[in-house]
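Lab notebook, bench 4. Still working through the backlog of constructs that have no structural model yet. Next entry is a single chain of 172 residues. Request: give me the structure tokens for it.
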Amino acid sequence: MVSLKYPFFLFLSSLFLHASLAEIVCEDLPKGVCAFSIASSGKRCLLETAVEKDGNVEYQCRTSEVVVERMAEYIETDECVRACGVDRNSIGISSDSLLEPQLTAKLCAPACSQNCPNIVDLYFNLAAGEGVFLPDLCNAQRTNPRRTMVELLSSGAAPGQPVGLAPASAPL
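Model written out:
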């Protein structure tokens, strides 16, 4: 009987070792965890739609070309998804979502901004693509939520920024 325990133990050990060495490949992720995940390659995963031959729309997880600095093999937690007010079922991600006051408020809240670096990094880069510094946007949202949209729409480049915006070095 002892001889059977040892091979069984080795078999189980090899399974655990294999599982710990498994890589995250976006195309292998289920729809429910695709968005806000990062593959082992360091590239972001994104949810896309594809139309099948029968006309049905199917959701697929794909690897984007966006590389995340200093982060790989990461699946965002449900806690961060809730805290930041994002939706895992979103098809693609657009900077237009920063115009939604509820999203901006959640994104800038400490529960998100201090605990969810993956989501903050994503939206930081989306804002930067529009010429907006996310910490300034968050400061504007805290001090005068109505001006947040003006700040984003002006892309932070308009002369005479609204009073109360923080300098570029301000934290979220």
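Notes after review: The helical segments are 2-21, 31-34, 78-84, 101-108, 110-113, 117-129, 134-143, 145-153. DSSP finds eight helices and four strands in the chain. Flag for follow-up if needed.
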